[in-house]
Amino acid sequence: MQHDAAIPVASAFVTARSDSPARALDDVFPASAPARSQAAAPVLIEYASRARLIEIETDWLALGERALDPNVFMDPAIIRSAERAFPDTRRATLLAWQADENVVRLVGLWSLSFGRVARSPLLGSVLVAPATPHAYLATPVIDREAPDRVLAAMLDYLERDAGMPNIIMLDAMALSGETMASLSRVLKARHSAPFILARAQRPMLESGLDAKQYLEKSQSSSSRKKLRQHRRRLEEKGRLESKVCKEPGAVGQAFDDFIRLENRGWKGRQGTALLCDSAEAAFSAAMVADLAGRGDAWIHALYLDDKPISMQIVLRAGRVGFTWKTAYDEDFQDFSPGMLLLEDYTREFLADRSISSINSCAYDDKSFMSVWAERQDIGQVCVSARRGPSLRFFLICRLRQAFLKMRSAAKMLHASWGRKWKKA
């Protein structure tokens, strides 16, 4: 099936607000697109090419201001970078457009990749989100005006297209967000339901307190005292500076420092650092550069005599920030450089009224980011675009759930053996 043109989907009409960014219909859909019937619904789904993703940046930024749950990992800049770096990975980026007689506006974006269930070919392919490497949120970006209609239109598209898998695996879906509530309503209306395979709590920063009040509340007095001692001891060793790189050129230079710092640490030894894979390094550099070009990526760093000892890359979508990647110099690990830097950027975030919250991108609340007191419920979720019950959907969910439980048990056993080995 040809995917380059938009297709109409049965959905209720939603009036576009006159003050919202909009574009002429002919500018959005080429003349070669199928003619739209007067009776066709105003929500149209488009399977976007990489070139198309370049054209919609203005629409994407406007959608981000109206989104139920902003998600930087659905940003077209990130998707484009992934498609350049990983051309063999098949992706499907769905755009939802809301139309009236004169204008359309972007009301939804969901990027998915094609995959297998637990690497098994037995049950065929599925769609997976996030669609890019090093992405930590699967939630689609949907306009808050009519989320149920937009999500229903997207599921309709997947159900009707015989070339598309109709089962979607969502890794790190925001369970407590409004988008998940909308998706649950839509699935119920289709006589289906989301299957939650696993769940966890992710630290986040969302508070009206100032930095002093927040850190006093979230950290014990002994922890704060110890961190003050660490900071003083580092200052005795040289010139200690906390910097924020936001200008694109400075971000690029700091990113080069970051990937080298990360590669010298445990991730480099384990082969999981960005520099260990040339395609991942190219992808990451391109996406950070693209986002920094419009002010949506910056880097916080703690320097000792101009040498980085701790760094944090932050990405942004609308009013929400995402602490994407962190690295520290293990030669200074006794001084807790990661925690010292976390204190610094926590102060910055809480002072910035253009930011409503920060998503830690952590898998659970057991990392050093757990000092942030707020929590986001996240989960691995499986949904079906088909209406009604499905035996294949049930089998895939059970297989995936069993795989996740087995992997979790193996990790716990490995950690237990590691502790016993150290004691011995």
Describe the structure.
There is one protein chain. The protein has a 15-stranded mixed beta sheet that branches. The radius of gyration is 23 Å and the shape is globular. The chain contains 13 helices and 15 strands. β4 and β5 (103-117) form a beta hairpin. The protein is of the alpha+beta class and 424 residues long. The longest helix is centred in the last third of the chain and has 33 residues, at 391-423. The chain folds into 2 domains: 7-204 and 377-411, Gcn5-related N-acetyltransferase (GNAT) (Aminopeptidase, 3-Layer(aba) Sandwich), CATH 3.40.630; 208-355, Aminopeptidase (3-Layer(aba) Sandwich), CATH 3.40.630. It has helices spanning 25-28, 50-55, 57-66, 76-85, 147-160, 178-189, 211-218, 221-237, 248-263, 266-270, 278-293, 337-351, 391-423, and strands at 7-8, 23-24, 43-48, 91-99, 103-117, 120-129, 141-142, 167-174, 195-205, 240-245, 297-304, 307-317, 320-328, 357-359, 374-384.
In short:
With 424 residues, the chain is of the alpha+beta class. It has helices at 25-28, 50-55, 57-66, 76-85, 147-160, 178-189, 211-218, 221-237, 248-263, 266-270, 278-293, 337-351, 391-423, and strands spanning 7-8, 23-24, 43-48, 91-99, 103-117, 120-129, 141-142, 167-174, 195-205, 240-245, 297-304, 307-317, 320-328, 357-359, 374-384. It has two domains: 7-204 and 377-411, Gcn5-related N-acetyltransferase (GNAT) (Aminopeptidase); 208-355, 3-Layer(aba) Sandwich (Aminopeptidase).
